[in-house]
Specification:
single chain, 7 helices
Length: 221
């Protein structure tokens, strides 16, 4: 009976990660939609929902620590639980980045968009796909897939550099665009950080599977 409870607890922790990742994916999608459409109401909804994601993180951490305290897991099980704690931390921070984009929408609501948005939504789509694949790699214990996900971060970085150069050109050509261009750059940076945090998740997948904890790619705060 005790073993059955233990297995159920581990499964519930994985389910918690999947549920939280879904919440974060929705926050990313809605924040970029709000930015693209200058939808202030939607931006407020993203910010309001952020506390639910925070609560989910703390609840999952508490459950993970309870399993450690009561079941004394060993070897790979312990690594999986440690990975859960790390992953939900990164997911919560991704949600913060989404909320940051939503705040930019509210702060710039009295001004028209500098330009139709193409590359930021493309960045977001890539980051969301990375997140989905990274979580799948965790659930399946797939080290190879986790490593493949990390490689996609280069595509996000290329788009970010492209956006940076384009917005800099706007600012140099017309100083009246500086505020709007700077805010769009901040939004792009938030998306870029979401992708970086997915690489953190993939590193934890590799750790959970192999026991080796090392950087696959560099991500800075």
């Amino acid at each position: 009976m005790t073993r059955f409870v233990y297995i159920s607890q581990l499964r519930e922790l994985r389910d918690d990660v999947v549920a939280m990742a879904s919440m974060v994916d929705k926050a990313i999608s809605r924040s970029v939609q709000a930015l693209r459409q200058q939808d202030v109401n939607l931006a407020h909804e993203v910010i309001a929902a952020d506390h639910l994601i925070n609560s989910h993180r703390w609840r999952t951490e508490e459950r993970a620590l309870l399993v450690i305290a009561t079941q004394a897991p060993m070897a790979s099980d312990l690594r999986v639980i440690a990975a859960v704690i790390s992953i939900v931390t990164d997911l919560e921070r991704m949600a913060d980045h989404a909320a940051g984009i939503a705040k930019i929408v509210i702060e710039t609501s009295n001004e028209p968009l500098l330009k139709p948005l193409v590359d930021i939504p493309r960045m977001a789509d890539l980051a969301r796909q990375m997140l989905a694949d990274g979580i799948s790699a965790f659930i399946e214990g797939d080290e190879a897939r986790a490593r493949e996900v990390v490689k996609k971060d280069d595509e996000v970085d290329i788009l970010y550099d492209q956006i940076f150069r384009e917005l800099l050109t706007y600012m140099m050509a017309d100083t009246s665009t500086i505020n709007r261009a700077t805010r769009l750059l901040w939004a792009a940076h938030n998306v870029e950080r979401i992708a970086d945090r997915t690489t953190n998740i993939c590193e934890r997948v590799v750790f959970a599977v192999t026991g080796s904890l090392a950087e696959i790619a560099v991500a800075t705060d």
